[in-house]
Amino acid sequence: MLNRYDATEFEHDGLTRQIFTRGEGPGIVVMTEVPGIYDSVIEFADRLVDEGYRVYLPDLIGEAGKPFSAGYALSSITRACIAKEFHVLATRGSSPITIWLRALARKAHEDCGGPGVGCIGMCLTGNFGLAMMVDESVMAPVLSQPSLPFPFGAQRKAALHISDADLEIVKERIVKRGCKVLGLRFTGDPMCPPERFETLRQELGDGFEGIEIDSSTGNPHGNPATAHSVVTKDLVDEEGHPTRMALDRVMSFFAERLRS
């Protein structure tokens, strides 16, 4: 599936990563979830291409194109926990990789033009969109099941994985520029607890739109208690299903913010 994408390298401040690009239109940075760039992530990126966007898919974790498996996911998490680019327990600070991602967003904006770029982080990268919003180029951040910091203890459950100074810049952009943040989670997801979305609502006010999908026992749509990946692995692509409705909202959010 990745053979339809152009593979290049992007360097910033001494860090070089491979990126996969495809499509024409406003730029969107798609940050992969655990375990890496696997089929469901590529399918989501393909949807964006079909909707008329240029996708920038950086290879952040795992092995690009490798199929999903439980063992592969576990090994990817283990590697991320010890990688210097990720600070998985930081409550008031972002992972260092977000500096590189901001530079990638600027490149996407230079390449594609328009009012700015979108981005979506998932799972391990879920909160990275907040830190990227510090850069003026990022106009449409989506936080899908944001799982950092790992929710060990009450403080980390509510934390946003961003420094106080960067959060103030995000809040200022919301007030002065009308920027918005979209968040997605399943209600029973222990990796993305409700306290995190409550903090987002408290800090960002009307600038945050949170979509929470019922995954409680016996829920009417049959979402499993283990549901985690809203727009990829646990997506049920059927009209009227809440995950499909969440996906549709992601698409309309990007259109509202990037096509003016």
CATH topology: Rossmann fold
- CATH superfamily heading: Alpha/Beta hydrolase fold, catalytic domain
Question: Which whole number gives the mean pLDDT?
Answer: 96
> Judging from the principal axes of the Cα atoms, what is the shape?
globular
Helix content: 25-40%
- Separation, N- and C-terminal Cα atoms: 31 Å
Relative strand content = 15-25%
Report the order of strands and helices.
EEEHEHHEHEHHEHEH
Low-pLDDT ranges: none
| CATH architectural category | 3-Layer(aba) Sandwich
Indicate how many domains the architecture comprises. 1
**Rg (C-alpha, Å):** 17 Å
Protein structure class: alpha/beta
How many β strands by DSSP? 8
- What kind of sheet is the major sheet? 8 strands, mixed
In order across it, which strands form the biggest sheet? 1-2-4-3-5-6-7-8
CATH top level label: Alpha Beta
Number of helices: 8
Based on the structure, what is the oligomeric state of the protein chains? single chain
